[in-house]
Amino acid sequence: MNRVVIVGASLAAVNAVEGLRKNGYQGEIELVGAEPDLPYDRPPLSKEALRAGPELDKLLLREPDWYGAQGVELRLGTAAVGLDTRARHVVLAGGRELSYDGLVIATGGSPRSLGSLEEVGPVHVIRSVADTAALHEQLVPGRHLVVIGAGFIGLEVAATARGMGLDVSVVERAPVPLTRVLGDEAGSWFKDHHLANGVNLHCGSVLDQIEVTPGGSRIRLADGSVLAADVVVAGIGVLPATGWLDGSGVRVSDGVVCDPSLRTSAPGVVAAGDVARWHNPLFDETMRVEQWRNAVEQGGRAALSLLGDNDAFATVPYFWSDQFDAKVRFVGVAGGAERIQVKQTGDASMVALFGRHDKIRGALCINAPRLLARYQKAIREQVAWGEATETG
Ligand SMILES: Cc1cc2nc3c(=O)[nH]c(=O)nc-3n(C[C@H](O)[C@H](O)[C@H](O)COP(=O)(O)OP(=O)(O)OC[C@H]3O[C@@H](n4cnc5c(N)ncnc54)[C@H](O)[C@@H]3O)c2cc1C
Fold it and tell me: Which residue ranges of the chain lie beneath pLDDT 70?
């Protein structure tokens, strides 16, 4: 293998570069990214960088000279628009073809849109540094922000904006935030936490219409109530960025379908990060994980697979979220839990365990960092539910 192309220039990609070089690959690497910027970190975009205004040089994943030192040719501001897996080339916007021996798909995801509801006026999303810069400009103390969707990103934006002195409302279709992922009891902790910090939560509320008036937007809910908004943000989830693979023969089903070693259905093509769906042997389950650490680990793992290693990518997922003074940490998997036990709860902290098939498989620790490592170990070792819930 002499030529590797990586499409998507972000977290999974830089870790794939590192994985290739660390493991002895000496051939060419070309990194194709749709955004004009060098790869940067996204978690601060809904937190500190939204509050203070994003400064790209503080967010960069690697120093600018790192790419040259790694022998990486950068092709930024250029989207891949097609892939020919027989001829082994990537088609770029403008028609240019890039040949490869090995290809890493690391195109992440893009925010779901509100569809036709968005056509009336500006609705912000947060995925890129440009998105955060545009929203930051609008977050003026005293203004009213309406966030559509109480997922993790929506709640982080709400917390950041509230901390900046805005009047904040969150509209959520479900009766409790995060209930689909964490269940009612754990989700209620987030509801109480946001209410206690002055966020107006409209749960069980369906967005019906957005109207633009000279003084701002009017958010009409299905129950007839209306919220006035100076700024509107949609935080309704992410879709894997796979459109450019249409017709390529690479199997896609809510993400790029991979085998346990992150190989796709096409020879010489692997995938990593938010875009990849693979079978995680630790949970005996197919999953796609939109989390920072997963992108780091999968980038390295996909590189190894491209170099011929056959090990499966077996991981206990981990993510964090910061909302007001809550340091939220989650290890494992929450979805599909048959039982959830809230072990410890209070205004400032909470621990909830998630189990299935009589084994522990997930743990939520809010302001309880010391328990995290213990539960991570228990999940990795597939400890029985009874044993895991007895201790701690
Ligand atoms: C606002 C925000 C806050 C977050 N906070 C947290 C957090 O607190 N904790 C946590 O664990 N995780 C968090 N995450 C998730 C974490 O940032 C992602 O899991 C991680 O960025 C995924 O990396 P990736 O490389 O797979 O994809 P991405 O970072 O999405 O990068 C994919 C890149 O591919 C590019 N691309 C897409 N299509 C094409 C194409 N056709 N051609 C060329 N390039 C293309 C995109 O422009 C993008 O630059 C957050 C994400 C966001 C957006």
Answer: 118-121, 391-392
